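ok so I'm stuck.
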Amino acid sequence: MSLYLKVLLFSFIIPFIASFNSKIKFNNFFSLMFITLLISSVPFILWDIYFTYLGVWGFNSEYHSGILLTNLPLEEILFFHIIPFCCLFTYFVLKKFDKFNLRYNYVVLRLFSLILLVTGLMFYERAYTLSVCLLSALIMLNISFSKSKLNGYFFSTYILISLIPFIIVNGILTGYLDVNTPPVWYNNAEIIGLRFLTIPVEDFLYNFVLMYINYMLFEFYCRRKQKDTTKQDILNN
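replied:
not stuck anymore, here's the structure
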């Protein structure tokens, strides 16, 4: 079993088992989860394929199975399903038990949006930096105009809960074990070059975008299911 696959399975196993806990019952939402992951993964996989083709990043064959979809290892495809699953499980638990609903300032979010926008434009020739900065700026701006209480749970999931496992998992993939031949490498011409340990700062924004897209889709399907259930109850009565 490849190192990349071991990292993914280790990330997945505990949230998956905990999903069947009688107090959590996240397994009741697996159908909605499947739809969410299926739809959300498409643009990210296409983005990944294109950036791999451009040489923005790539994968060391020593650390993956060798099974490829176009130019992506099987493990990289699984990444867009397993990691969002773990994050949405965490988000679901926080929301269900009403824990860590992080308060945030709308003005600060707009300021961060402006900073990210300026940063992206300053490094417009660096594909990864430009793309994640612009996308993150748009998302933060959107959240700053939203009054949804659920955004607090999303920020709690991203900032308070998921950052530690993200740093561990992404750190392994970007070179904790071998900085010279990491499982995933980056073209320094396409990133700022600033790293947290071995992790490019752009990856933190990428993770933010990935989590938010999945969070929004999951909530959309949850609301639609609730409306359908309510409508059916009215018809039955």
